[in-house]
Recover the amino acids of this structure.
């Protein structure tokens, strides 16, 4: 018989963690667990000490007996609940961005603008500790908010651990810079943009990316997309494609199975392209 290995004990919730309180109507409240603190809800009060030490997925009760499920937030949930300085890219677009730009462990990724840090967090999780994300943001207040949100989210174990003996640090640099003036690095793997005039960066991205690298831009209007595609057509970028993602949930409860009355429709267009090597 093979050697038996004991099952690891579930990791309990600890002070300083961000958790979601979810009530019976699936309403979510994001809080930071603080010893001695008390959460005041419309369904009663809930001491944080009552949550600390519990296993994720536990049910706790308020002073009025209301049941709340306690979970660590997913990235999607955190993005929707975190404090914002600028409008965020929503989860329905974050996943496709990672796939279309083929963000993978070890990638060197350039991002602009950083905004509130939603896309930054998704990129960091994808590149892992061996990659790096460089962000340019023109506004100091947006950059500060993004840094705060990113550091708060990764305060736990959301990012894979570093190599043995290495110091734990986020592979992230945010600079207060205007990316329209240029990108001061080369041999990047990916350039991901959330800017109103990305066509101004096509030449800069062409110079900064390695051959085969991917350019991706998120834009709200089709007029902006047309202007960008015109600029890409005269460059070394090829295989240009534009798409949008629509998100529709379903009501699945007998005897009624139907699409929900509301859906998340247009938020933005995703345009991506590959950089070709210089011709002889």
């Amino acid at each position: 018989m093979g050697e038996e290995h004991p099952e690891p004990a579930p990791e309990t919730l600890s002070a300083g963690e961000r958790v979601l309180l979810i009530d019976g109507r699936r309403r979510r409240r994001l809080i930071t667990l603080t010893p001695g603190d008390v959460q005041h809800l419309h369904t009663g009060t809930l001491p944080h000490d009552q949550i600390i030490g519990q296993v994720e997925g536990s049910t706790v009760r308020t002073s009025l007996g209301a049941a709340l499920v306690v979970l660590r937030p997913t990235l999607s949930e955190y993005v929707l609940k975190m404090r914002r300085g600028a409008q965020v890219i929503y989860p329905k677009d974050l996943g496709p961005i990672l796939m279309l730009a083929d963000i993978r462990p070890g990638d060197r990724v350039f991002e602009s603008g950083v905004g509130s840090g939603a896309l930054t967090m998704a990129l960091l999780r994808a590149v892992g500790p061996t990659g790096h994300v460089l962000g340019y943001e023109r506004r100091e207040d947006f950059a500060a908010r993004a840094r705060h949100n990113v550091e708060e989210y990764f305060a736990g174990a959301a990012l894979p651990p570093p190599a043995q003996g290495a110091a734990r640090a986020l592979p992230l640099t945010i600079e207060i810079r205007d990316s329209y003036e240029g990108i001061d690095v080369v041999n990047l793997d990916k350039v991901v943009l959330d800017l109103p005039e990305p066509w101004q960066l096509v030449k800069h991205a062409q110079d900064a990316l390695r051959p085969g690298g991917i350019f991706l831009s998120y834009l709200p209007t089709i007029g902006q997309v047309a202007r960008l595609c015109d600029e890409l057509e005269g460059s070394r970028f090829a295989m240009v494609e534009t798409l949008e993602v629509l998100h529709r949930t379903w009501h699945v409860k007998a005897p009624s199975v139907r699409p929900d009355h509301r859906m998340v429709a247009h938020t933005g267009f995703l345009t991506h392209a590959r950089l070709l090597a210089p011709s002889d």
